[in-house]
Amino acid sequence: MAAMAEVSWYQQVMLKCEEMRKRLESEDSVLTDVSKDSKHFTTKSTVGMMLNGCSIESMVVGGPAFNSHMLERGDTIIEVDERPVDANTILDALVGSDVPGSVHTGSIQVSLQRMASEQIADRRHMLELFTLCKEKCSHLKDQEFSTIIDECISLWTDMLLAESEGMERASCSYQILKSDCLVLLQELSDHLASALTSCQSELSWKQKMMENLEEAARQKEVQQRAKEEEAERERRKLQEENAAMSVELEDLRSTAKKYQSAVQNFEHRAIQSVMKESKMLQNEIDNLRDLGKNLNEEISFLKRRNEELEYENKGLHIEVRRHKTELEASKSQYVDLHEKICFALEPIYSQCCPDASPERKPNLEEMIVGLQQAVPALRRACDELRNDVSPRTRRSEENVTERLVPCQLALVLVLVLELLLVLGLGLGLGLVLGLGLVLVLGLGLVLGLGLVLGLLLVLVLVLVLVLGLVLGLVLALSYCLDMLFRLQACCHQRGLASLEHLCLFLEQSHDASSSHNHQREAPAAVGQAGGGGESDRKKLEERQAKLEQENWELREEVRELQGYIKAMQESPVKKQGPALGLA
What is the pTM of this model? Predict the structure, then answer.
């Protein structure tokens, strides 16, 4: 189609070029003045001369006579078309056949081609008017007016002459331009003809190609029709299958609605259960908070109890100091008595010597008997002192144990409450995250986010929960261990102080008992200074050795207690572990 349109365009251009060439060839000049007002002229053609008889008085600029450039004003016409003429016949001879374009020849062999009167109608009419005026002047014999008319004619002729020269030059340029345009149009026509030929050949080739393509298209159309028929059969088959599937779809929709209602009921029940569990967890958290408050109250109570125990400890210290002063006073008394007994026993030892006189022997025996009688009293005094020391020791141990038991109970309560708090927080976080997980899965299923995104969210939430629980347990254990070490150090320091006070008390009691035994033995020895002999002296020495042995054993026990106290003071608190008892 494009090639055919191009061919038709080339043909139209060639037709336009041919039309323009014909128009240029048909027009001689486009600069010729043409006046349509030629009705008052008696002739159709003119040679453009104004005559005075047979003499040329003036010529119309642009007329045949003027354009011939062979006639001038004042020339006399003798013959027209080889026939003699005079003033009466010259006009008829010049008009001739009165056909524009006809030629007549004068005696001077000038060929004048008559032109249509319309081409120079205005100039001819003007010249005739001047001629008429001049004739009127000649009849009136007004020579001056005739001269004026001649000057007007001359001036008008000069003007027309100048204009004619310009028009002539323009006409020459027009002719040159016309010839150039004709040449260009001819060349353009030749190029268009060659282009048209090539386009026609190309169009014929394309037509052949189009015929081949149309044939292929017809074959494809036949194949397409066969495919469409097959597709139509398939479509009908699919329509039948779609009808069956639509029925199945309706059934599936009904079952989906049932499942959806069941899922909604399940979600509602699950949300209600989760809400109940969250309320229960909230209640448990509130209970744990109450337990924490109770624990704080118990801790404050233990602090107050600790302050009371410290106050009692201060009282015990004061009492121990008082006992110390009393023991020091009794010790000084016992020392004085011991010196007196020694001073009293000096005669006895002098009597026990081998060189003692027989008169003093009965006195020695009496002193030995008195000492033998004083031994049971000394034993009773030792037992009384031991009985007096052992209740105090037990009371000190009981006080230490009573001081340690509340600390141990407080530590156990702190550990239990911390563990309960961590477990409660872990369960609360787990249930809250479970509720969030259910909601996220529900939203994922509703919004169509997919199961993979839900599982990823589950894994992230589980990891966050595990990290939170581990961090909570680590913090709780660190806090509990710190509290444990602090309580252990406090209890250990208090137990060591109590043991030191107990050992000092036992040592003072032992010194007091030993001095008391010496004081009791002294009077008995004084009473028996008179009797006894060598055997009695040996018995007294044996009993004295037994008393010294008992005193040595008591001192050893005191040393062991002091060594234990020093070992407890030197041993670090952290190496003893969580055990909080006394050895």
Answer: 0.26
- The C-alpha atoms of residue 565 and residue 396 are separated, in whole angstroms, by 15
Please indicate, yes or no, if residue 480 is contained in any of the structural domains. Answer: yes
Residue 35, strand partner residues? none
Look up the domain containing 107 and give its range: 26-180
Does 154 fall in a domain? Answer: yes
In-domain check, residue 502: yes
Number of structural domains in the chain:
2
Yes or no: say if 87 and 53 are a contact pair by the CB < 8 Å rule.
yes
DSSP secondary structure letter of residue 573: G
Examine the fold and report which residue of 131, 146, 180 is the final residue of a domain before the chain moves on.
180
Quickly list DSSP for 298-351: HHHHHHHHHHHHHHHHHHHHHHHHHHHHHHHHHHHHHHHHHHHHHHHHHHHHHH
CATH code, 73: 2.30.42.10
CA distance 399 to 545: 37
Does a structural domain hold residue 303?
no
H helix or E strand, kind and range, residue 50:
strand 49-52
User: Rounded to an integer, what distance in angstroms lies between the CA atom of residue 581 and that of residue 583?
Assistant: 7
Q: Give the burial class of 339: count Cβ atoms within 10 A of its Cβ; 0-12 exposed, 13-18 middle, 19 or more buried.
A: exposed
The vertex-261 CA angle with 255 and 267, nearest 5°, equals: 135
Domain-terminating residue out of 158, 180, 202? 180
pLDDT in single tens digits along all 583 residues of the chain: 555 566 677 677 777 777 777 777 766 554 444 444 445 555 666 777 777 778 887 777 767 777 777 787 778 888 887 788 887 888 777 776 656 655 545 455 455 555 566 666 777 777 778 878 877 877 777 778 878 888 888 888 788 778 877 877 888 888 888 888 888 878 887 877 787 788 778 778 878 888 888 888 888 888 888 888 888 888 888 888 888 888 888 888 888 888 888 878 887 887 888 788 778 878 878 887 787 788 778 777 877 877 777 777 777 778 777 777 777 776 676 667 656 665 655 555 555 544 544 444 445 455 555 555 555 655 565 555 555 544 544 554 455 455 555 555 655 666 666 666 666 666 666 666 666 666 666 665 655 555 556 666 667 767 776 776 676 666 666 666 666 566 555 555 554 454 445 445 444 544 544 554 444 444 444 444 444 456 656 766 676 677 667 667 666 655 665 565 566 555 543 333 333 332 2
